[in-house]
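seq:
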Amino acid sequence: MEPVKLIRNNSDIEGYIKITGSKAISIRLLIMKALAGSKIRFENLSDSDDVKLLKFYLSFFDTCANSRIAMIVDAGGANAVMRFVTAYASIREGKWLITGNDNLKEHSIAPLVDALREMDADIFYTEKEGFPPVKIYGKPLRSTQVTIDAGHSSHFVSALMLIAPLLPKGLLINFKGKPVSRSYIKMTEYLMKQAGINIELNDKFIKIEPGKYKLSPVSIEPDWGNASYWYELAAFSDNADIFIEGLQKNSIQGGVLLADIFESFGVKTEFEENGVRIKKSGNSVEEFVYDFSDIPDLAIPVMVTCAATHTKGTFKGLNKSRLKENVRIEVLEKELAKIGAEVKYSKGTVTVIPVSEFYFDVLEIDAYNDHKLAMSFAPLALKVNELKIYNPGTVKKSYPGFWQNIDNFGVEVNVPDGLCS
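struct:
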C-alpha cells in the first residue's frame, strides 16, 4: 500500500482550521434521537466514517423491527458503533446480529454483555465467548439495577446510561472497579440532562430516572480530540499561529485539557469569541508528568510530542489492558524506536525516554491501520525532510479531512489516489 508523503516546506506555520463536530457527542446524540423516535436534525455532525456508519444502520432499525426481518449490523472496525448499538438493539424488539471486522472481533465486549444479561436481555455470542459477533433478540427490559465492570471502557457505561430512561423504573448502574475515561461518562450525563433526564452520578454508581428524551436542535461543538494534532504541530514548529474555529473553553469534552497540557511544550492557547488561537511561546519543560486516567485518548499524541521535543514523559493512570486492546502501546514502542526514543510500562504508568538528537532525511512510519497513530505521527513532518506514513486512509475513521487540512501548514502532502477523501 502506498504511503502518504509529507515534505517539510518551513517550520513557521500559521493559518485557519475548521474541525467538524465531536465524534463522541455525535454518536450519543444519534442514539438518543433513535431512542426518542425523533426526526430532529443536528448541525455539524462529525463527518467521521464511524458516525456515518452508525447513522446508516440506525435508519433501518424501525423497518426491520416492524417487518420482523432479522438485521445484520456490520460495525467494521468501529468499537463505539459495536458497543452502543449492542445496548440499543437489546431493547428494540426484533432480531439483530452485531458484528465487525477481524480486528474488532478481538476486542472484548464481555462487560457490556454480562451487564445486559443481568438485565434479562436475550444476547448470545455466535463465535468466541466474550467477543463479537453477538446475536440479540430485542425486547423491553424491566430491570431496576445492574453492576458493570467499568474498568475496561467508558463505552460500556455510556451505552447502558443511554437506554436506562426507557426502562419502566429507570436504572441504578453500580460500578465494579474504577471507571476509565470518566470524561466520556460525564459527557453522556450532561447530554442526557440537557434532554430532560434526571441523573445522579458519583464514584460508585449512576442512578437514572425513567423519562422521555426531549431533544432540541443543536450545533455540535468541534472535536477537541482532533485538535491535538494541531497542538503537536505547533510544538514542533519554530513559530506558530493557528486559529481553530468553534472550540470553546467551556467544552463538555475532556480534550479541552489540551490547552493546559501543551503549555508544558511551549504552546499557548488564547480563547477567543469564535474559537481558539494556539501559538508557540517557547517556554517548555524538561520533564512532563500528567495523570491521563480520565482522558487516555489524548495520551498518544502527547507521547509522540515528548519523544520528539527532548522531554521525558511520565504518563500516569493508563491501564495496560486497555492500551493493549488497541495494540497501540506495542506499535508506539516500535515506531518511536525508529527515532531513537524508548517507551516503558510499569504499574499503570508509561514512561517515554526522548531522543537526544533528532535528524532524519527520510522517516517511514507504519500506522498499522490505527487512525490516532497515523495523525499523531504526522506532525513529525516538521522535524524531518520527508515523512512517509503507511495506511494513511485510516484517518477517515475519525478525521477524514486531516491530510487536506495539514497540507500547506509548513508541509506539502502527497496523498495516494483513492485512499483519503
